[in-house]
Amino acid sequence: MKNTIKVLRAEHDLTQADLAEKVAVSRQTINAIEKGKFDPSLPLAFKISRLFNKSIEEIFTAEE
Amino acid sequence: MKNTIKVLRAEHDLTQADLAEKVAVSRQTINAIEKGKFDPSLPLAFKISRLFNKSIEEIFTAEE
DNA sequence: TCCTTATGTAAATAAAACTTTACTTTTAGT
DNA sequence: ACTAAAAGTAAAGTTTTATTTACATAAGGA
Predict the structure, then answer these.
(1) A1, A38, A46, B52 - which has most CB atoms within 10 Å?
(2) What's the rounded Cα separation, in Å, for the pair A62 and B42?
(3) Which chain B positions have a beta carbon within 8 Å of A54's beta carbon?
(4) Nucleotide nearest to B19 (CA to C1')
(5) Min distance A8 CA to chain B CA atoms (Å)
(6) CATH number of the domain where residue B42 is located
(7) What's the confidence (pLDDT) of residue B18?
(8) Regarding beta strands B2-3 and A2-3, do their DSSP bridges make them parallel or antiparallel, or are they unpaired?
C-alpha cells in the first residue's frame, strides 16, 4: 500500500505535524504511514482524503 | 463508518463465507464489519471494493 | 556557528482489527 | 415439523495500527 501523502502535504504546504493535527493523530503516525511502516485505518484514510479533496484511490494504491 | 456490503453481497449472490474466502479473511470478520463492530483495514477495504468494482467511497461512508 | 523547525527513528504501551473455536439463532426448502 | 445452510455472537488470543516519550539527524536562516 503506497501513498502520495508527502506530495500532497508539499502541495498544501503542510508539515507532518500540521497534517497530524488536522486529522487528529500523532506526528509519528503520519511519518510511519508516509514511510510505509504501516497502513492507516480506514477512518484515518477517509480523513486524509477529505482533507485533500481526493478519493482514497487517488491517494492510496494497493501495490498488488 | 457504515457500509453496503450486505446489499452488494446479495446482488452478487454471495454468502458471508463466500465473500470471506474471496478476500481472504474469516467469515466472522465479514460479519463483524457488516454489523458495524469494527472497520476493515485499508487493504481489506480495497480488496472488497475491487471485488465489487466499486470505489471505497461507494461502499463505505464515514457517518459524520 | 548557533538556533530553530522539520523529519526520522525507536522502545514501550494501548487500542483496534482479525483469527480460531464453538455454540446459538434465523431462514428457507422439502 | 425437520433439516441444512446462513447468519449472529462470544471469548481468548494474535497481529496491526496508533500513542507517548524521547532522542538523533538534516536543512536553513540569522
Answers:
(1) A46
(2) 9
(3) none
(4) D6
(5) 19
(6) 1.10.260.40
(7) 98
(8) unpaired
Indicate yes or no: strand D within 7 A of the C-beta of B32.
Answer: yes
Helix/strand/coil percentages in chain A, nearest 5: 55, 10, 35
Q: Tell me the whole-structure pTM to 2 decimals.
A: 0.95
Q: How many domains does chain B have?
A: 1
CB of A15 within 7 Å of some strand D atom? no
Contact predicate A58/A8, CB 8 Å: no
Cell 464489519 sits at which residue? B33
Low-confidence ranges of chain B (pLDDT < 70): 64
- Judged by CB atoms closer than 8 Å, whether chains meet at A40 and B40 is answered as no
* Mutate which: A1, A2, A25, A46, vs B, most B CBs within 10 A: A46
Cβ of A46 within 8 Å of Cβ of B55? The answer is: no
* Residue B39 grid coordinates: 472497520
Asked if residue A50 belongs to a domain, the reply is yes
Domain that holds residue B20: 2-61
Give B38's DSSP letter.
Answer: S
Report, as an integer, the average pLDDT of A47-55.
97
